[in-house]
Design goal:
Blueprint: H1 5-19, H2 30-42, H3 59-75, H4 79-83, E1 86-88, E2 91-93, H5 106-113, H6 117-125, E3 139-143, H7 149-157, E4 162-167, H8 170-182, E5 189-193, E6 205-210, H9 217-221, H10 225-228, H11 243-251, E7 256-265, H12 270-276, E8 294-298, H13 305-308
Parallel strand pairs: 3-4, 3-6, 4-5, 6-7
Antiparallel strand pairs: 1-2, 7-8
Helix pairs in contact: 1-2, 1-3, 2-3, 5-7
């Protein structure tokens, strides 16, 4: 009986497990990783692979898959770097070692937000029909944009909005430029080299999203090899992992329009963040990872004294 794609995926997963590689850069285990590598070997988009699992695998594709698995094991590079691609939902982005591999839960929230999200509940309470709810999102900032993925997704979700995508790394912005151009959004997404908000003086937004560095010092020392392949600049955020969050909380209000909202990914730092800012009314929307990884705050909540007294630079 001819070997199927599923057979090759199963064997590849066993090899990855035996080698003790680490996951978390777009996949959660060896099976997902093997499916992604198999999709590339077969010349399929990642979302299209499931339909091919029961089909015979061409010898050429099986050899290509075996070579990718061997390279993955030998180099410990995340598969995203080997394939120069990362996926958020059905959206593909170019990546290489100049940027971290996109994996933010914020993309799920952008997908769910849609037009009028931040005013929709109050409009409904007043009896307004959903289709009559205006779209309040006309300006967006993606802070610490990296590959530009969240800025692009936001631009796609709110097609009338202007979007700024800011990052301190010129190398990251080169990758972001490639992705922005691939999506044909060069006229709507502005790339800005900026140390947090430093180069954004006077600019305000209806929505600020950020997936900033948030790994604490102890965790940085224990990162698996795959994570050490990513730019440390995009991961490390001081002793407690909150250096960048402090700056965002201290300065975001100056860059939000009235009624605007801040959406920030914080990793595993929810407890530390709430201990540091006990009076802030953080909201923790549900994501596929649970309710502990992304917080949101209104502009008005950011006026709290404990935020305004925070040091403004990491």
């Amino acid at each position: 009986m001819a070997r199927t794609v599923a057979d090759a995926v199963r064997d590849s997963a066993a090899r990855l497990d035996a080698a003790g590689v680490s996951f978390g850069h777009g996949t959660v285990d060896s099976t997902q990783e093997s499916m992604w590598l198999a999709a590339h070997a077969l010349g399929l988009d990642w979302p299209a692979l499931s339909a091919a699992l029961g089909k015979p695998i061409p010898m050429k594709a099986e050899k290509a898959l075996a070579a990718l698995v061997a390279k993955r094991i030998a180099t410990r590079k995340p598969a995203a770097y080997l394939l120069n691609e990362a996926w958020l939902g059905t959206h593909r982005f170019y990546v290489d070692e100049r940027v971290i591999v996109p994996r933010s839960f914020i993309f799920e929230l952008i997908e769910e937000m849609g037009s009028g999200t931040f005013s929709e509940r109050s409009q409904r309470r007043r009896g307004a029909r959903p289709e009559n709810v205006p779209d309040p999102i006309s300006s967006i900032l993606d802070l610490c944009t990296g590959s530009g993925c969240l800025a692009i997704l936001a631009a796609l979700r709110w097609p009338k909005a202007r979007v700024d995508a800011a990052d301190i790394s010129p190398q990251a912005l080169e990758v972001a430029r490639r992705n922005v151009d691939d999506y044909g959004l060069g006229e709507r997404v502005r790339l800005v080299r900026s140390d947090m908000f430093a180069a954004l003086a006077g600019r305000t937004y209806d929505l600020i999203v950020s997936n900033p560095p948030y790994v604490n010092a102890a965790s940085m020392k224990k990162l698996p090899e795959e994570y050490r392949r990513e730019p440390a600049l995009a991961l490390a955020s001081g002793a407690d992992g909150l250096d960048h969050a402090r700056v965002i909380l201290a300065e975001a209000r100056d860059h939000l329009n009235p009624g605007g909202r801040l959406v920030v990914e914080i990793g595993h730092n929810r407890k530390a963040l709430e201990r540091t800012f006990p009076s802030l009314p953080f909201e923790w929307p549900k994501t596929s990872g649970g309710r502990n990884f992304v917080f949101t705050l209104s502009r008005e909540a950011l006026a709290a004294p404990e935020v305004q007294q925070t040091e403004r630079r990491p």
